[in-house]
Design brief:
This protein has 551 residues and is mainly alpha-helical. The chain is 79% helix and 0% strand.
Length: 551
């Protein structure tokens, strides 16, 4: 019977055209691009659902009703915002304890431990797994959830460990829990198929792993979290098989499902960005890694940021290499134009000499001279345009080089700060100074200090690039509306907004993200300043973009 089910599933896959040779990578990229454009709408819908649940929780009086709503809120946040998910996970534990429900506490411990695993907090995950009362695992769902969480935990510990003995021991524990899941799960279930694929993959049996993933694919609906996970595993299989086109297709399919489900804890998009960067598609790679960084920032798990940072660095390096290649080509083109100019000059001299020798052909020579003058004018116009282009490229290169260097320096500083913070937290944990930890993590002073340092760095670099920006900007305003910053090396919010516009960042949403304002506030700032313009307000921002460009 089992073989008949498998055969039927494989035939079904072939009949609906989902074999490897029948995929359209370009069409999948278009779907993914559309999902990125619609991400804000998706997140707004998710937030509306969460607000409804919160309102219901606020009105709930019965403890069991409160528990169920807290459980729903945890589910709504678990892939969206890690910090909020942890809050509601702990609330479930507290509510279950108040009701004296050991079974619900066990469920809540498992759920919270799994969330800690997803966010890379492995010590916390182990703590809550140890709190699980084995005697309370009296249903198959609780047992599978418990074993699956431990399988994931020890797999992650093994993967990130640098100690070979600990790595081997952790892999053995992870494999043992996976084998237990395979033995207890129904062979037609998604859980069994996913663990079977994992087992075959770990043994390098990729064809068999792909075969079972084909069956797994028939059991999940597209654009769901289960489909996103299945697609990610298929991409890993194709990666190990050396089929990079299919690897990219399934990474894109996984990322598309993640974004359409509003899942911020996802790896497919930044892995796809790395693949595209290696293939030379830097524009798409940068767009995808930028979206992935936004998702990771929203989910707020340091593990994801740590994983994305190397990909972002590689993309920046590739972009710089491409820029160097473009500059080299530009120099070649300038040389060719110069040679052409010399050739034209020689022709002009030759025509003049012939003109003295052939007085009888004066009319023809006048016509030739007119044509030559026209060519010279066109060449002069093109040279002027080329000069302007060189000025813009030089300005852009200067800005990019300065900010890329500062960005890399800031990244290095942040790594050191994170490590110092980790050491400080670790010491206090070892010293059981939990109150100090609560004070450290409860204060927003660190965030405010980092934002101030970020803005100070931005102001300093920008004013080093454009030392006359404030004066030139004020010259565009009416005299009574001039803006005076608080210090020579600082900008206020008004100036900072138009400094970002000078750097080419026009969208109010991107400016709002950087300055931590709402897009509506940024729009209001821009409108207010343009109303103070000395000239035409419609081309005010265009004139701002020309500040500091030397003709």
């Amino acid at each position: 019977m089992k073989r008949l089910i498998i055969l039927f599933a494989v035939l079904t896959i072939r009949s609906i055209g989902l074999a490897a040779g029948q995929t359209d990578l370009d069409a999948m990229y278009q779907q993914l691009d559309q999902a990125i454009e619609q991400l804000d709408d998706c997140l707004a819908e998710r937030q509306e659902q969460i607000n409804t649940l919160k309102a219901q929780y606020g009105k709930a009086n019965e403890p069991m009703r409160q528990y169920l709503l807290a459980e729903d809120l945890f589910g709504a946040y678990c892939k969206l915002m890690n910090d909020s998910a942890l809050v509601y996970g702990k609330l479930c534990i507290r509510l279950a304890g108040n009701m004296g429900r050991a079974d619900l506490m066990t469920e809540s411990y498992i759920r919270l431990a799994q969330q800690y695993v997803e966010s890379g907090a492995y010590e916390e995950a182990q703590k809550y797994f140890r709190l699980v009362d084995i005697e309370q695992l009296n249903t198959i769902n609780m047992k599978t959830a418990y074993f699956e969480g431990l399988n994931h935990l020890y797999g992650e510990l093994a993967f990130y460990s640098s100690d070979s003995d600990f790595k081997q021991q952790s892999y053995k524990l992870s494999d043992a829990y996976r084998d237990s899941l395979i033995n207890m799960a129904d062979t037609t279930s998604i859980l069994w198929l996913s663990k079977k694929v994992s087992l075959l993959f770990s043994r390098d049996q990729f064809e068999e792993a792909k075969h079972y993933s084909d069956i797994w694919m028939t059991k999940v609906e597209p654009e769901t979290p289960d489909y996103a996970y299945m697609a990610y595993i298929r991409s890993e299989i194709y990666r190990r098989m050396g089929n990079h086109e299919m690897e990219s297709y399934w990474l894109a399919s996984s990322a598309n499902s993640d974004l359409r489900c509003g899942i911020m804890d996802q790896a497919s998009l930044w892995m796809l960005a790395g693949r595209l960067s290696a293939e030379g598609d830097l524009e798409r790679a940068y767009r995808y890694v930028e979206c992935s960084w936004r998702c990771a920032s929203m989910f707020n798990a340091h593990l994801r940021s740590w994983q994305i940072s190397p990909v972002l660095t590689v993309i920046n390096d590739n972009y710089k290499n491409q820029l160097r290649s473009t500059n080299h080509m530009l120099r070649i083109l300038v040389g060719v134009v110069s040679v052409l100019a010399l050739v034209l000059l020689g022709l002009y001299l030759y025509v003049r000499r012939k003109r003295r020798q052939l007085a009888a052909a004066r009319n023809e020579l006048k016509e030739a001279n007119s044509e030559l003058v026209s060519l010279n004018e066109q060449l002069s116009d093109k040279n002027q345009k080329l000069l302007n282009t060189n000025i813009l490229l030089s300005d852009a290169n200067r800005v990019k080089d300065e900010y890329i260097g500062k960005f890399l320096s800031i990244c290095s500083d942040y790594i050191d700060k994170l490590d110092n913070y980790r050491i400080k937290v670790h010491r206090k944990l070892k010293a059981n100074q939990y109150n100090d930890l609560l004070r450290m993590t409860g204060s927003e002073q660190l965030k405010e200090d980092e934002l101030k340092e970020l803005f100070d760095n931005f102001d300093a670099v920008f004013l080093r690039l454009f030392p006359t920006f404030v004066d030139e900007f004020n010259s565009l305003l009416r005299p009574e509306e001039h803006i005076v910053p608080s210090g020579k090396s600082r900008l206020n919010t008004d100036l900072r907004i138009f400094a970002l516009i000078r750097l080419g960042i026009n969208e109010s949403s991107k400016i709002a993200e950087f300055l931590h304002y709402s897009p509506n506030s940024i729009y209001a700032y821009r409108a207010r300043i343009k109303n103070k313009a000395a000239g035409n307000r419609d081309d005010f921002e265009l004139r701002v973009k020309e500040i500091g460009i030397k003709g």
